[in-house]
Specification:
binds pyridoxal-5'-phosphate, Aspartate Aminotransferase, domain 2, 2 domains, 7-stranded mixed beta sheet, 4-stranded mixed beta sheet, globular, Aspartate Aminotransferase, domain 1, 13 helices, alpha/beta, single chain, 370 residues, 18% strand
């Protein structure tokens, strides 16, 4: 599929070919990528500390900004400690490198993000799939391999369709000893939980066997990644993950921007409230068109129409009216190509209504949902 050529953007608009289009794509769930406090903190930190630390953190490349971000991120997500990595993909590599010594087997949700699978295999851990969202299937595998050290890997919120992992059920079938559940929460942080703390907080789970990984490039709106969990496991990443030890951290101004974003996510609860209002508006509006989606408080809405040709046509017609509803090709969706529409805290109810009216015009009432 053709890539977008975005020339300018706000949290709700993209400029393509010189035209401003109302957009429902990406993962800027709270609108923090364009928040003035977030973008404003970049220049200030660059003036004080330069752009790059130019060295790995354990040699000469650490700053108070990176240290503070780790503490604030851990407090936000509700974990004891956090360690920063280059991005969300690398955070998954780091946790697998850190745990490979005593976790011989990885049990992975069949639709988990590719980075989890690659990370486990690259760390030399044998990978087995359990059925998507199916804790019973995971239980059977966990029973076979309990004595080898089990690493269970799942997305918290699945990127393609917004499905929510059954975290309590997975924990219930995870062996008690030498076992870890990694929840990749790239799409849950800033979205789920009463404060936006993510999937684990949403379920109210507190268990030392849980480790969270996340990106800082979606809900947080910046760039980077992190592993979060108990102090001991975070220390293991610090000591044993080569991808952390032998690599330069995220640029300091980006770390400063992420601090501002994490602060805004907590000090401006109206952002999460607006996101949830918009999730409800989009879900109810799609339901009125006969498009069924999930019932969770998740801003990802995935649906298909009867054929690729029809979906392309609807996508094109909406774009002609300056409405961008992403029609994407991505693994883990209901079909190879599908509509994946997201709402953010920054959309107004009128903007959501504009998209729904466009869909009503070009799709009409349909029976096909996810
Ligand atoms: C579920 C999930 N995990 C990991 C990643 C990788 O994160 P990053 O883009 O920060 O490398 C992504 C997104 O791209 C993702 O959706």
């Amino acid at each position: 599929m053709a890539r977008l050529n975005v020339q300018a953007s706000t949290a709700t608009m993209i400029r393509i070919d010189g035209r401003d289009v109302l957009a429902f794509g990406g993962c800027n769930y709270l609108g923090l990528a364009h928040h003035p406090a977030v973008t404003g903190s970049l220049a200030e930190a660059a003036g004080l500390l330069g752009l790059s630390t130019t060295a790995s953190r354990e040699t000469t490349g650490n700053t108070v900004v990176h240290d503070a971000l780790e503490q604030e991120l851990a407090a936000f997500v509700g974990e004891e400690a956090a360690i920063l990595l280059a991005d969300g993909y690398t955070a998954n590599i780091a946790i697998c490198q850190a745990l490979a010594r005593d976790h011989g087997v990885a049990l992975i949700d069949a639709r988990a993000h590719k980075s989890l699978r690659s990370a486990a295999s690259a760390a030399g851990i044998q990978v087995f799939e359990y059925e998507h969202l199916n804790a019973e299937s995971a239980a059977w595998l966990a029973g076979q391999f309990a004595d080898q050290g089990v690493l269970m890997l799942t997305d918290g919120v699945f990127a393609a369709d917004g499905a929510l992992a059954p975290v309590p059920e997975l924990l219930a079938v995870l062996p008690q000893r030498r076992a870890t559940l990694v929840v990749d929460d790239c799409h849950g942080v800033c979205v789920l939980g009463d404060r936006g703390q993510g999937t684990v907080g949403h379920f109210g789970v507190r268990d030392p066997r849980v480790v969270v990984t996340t990106t800082l490039a979606k809900g947080v709106g910046c760039y980077g990644g992190a592993v979060l969990g108990g102090r001991a496991v975070v220390q293991r990443v610090r000591d044993q993950a080569d991808v952390y030890r032998r690599s330069t951290p995220i640029p300091t101004p980006i770390a400063a921007a992420a601090r501002a974003a994490v602060l805004a996510a907590q000090s401006e609860p109206e952002l999460l409230r607006a996101l949830r209002r918009n999730i409800g508006l989009m879900r109810d509006g799609l339901a009125r068109l006969g498009i069924a989606t999930h019932r969770e408080s998740i801003p990802i809405f995935t649906f298909t129409l009867e054929s690729n040709q029809r979906m392309e046509e609807v996508h094109r017609r909406l774009l002609a009216e300056d409405l961008y509803a992403p029609y994407i090709e991505y693994p883990g969706g209901p079909t190879p190509r599908f509509f994946r529409v997201t709402v953010t805290a920054a959309h107004s109810p009128e903007e959501i209504e504009r998209l729904l009216a466009g869909l009503a015009r070009h799709v009409g009432p349909v029976a096909a949902g996810t």
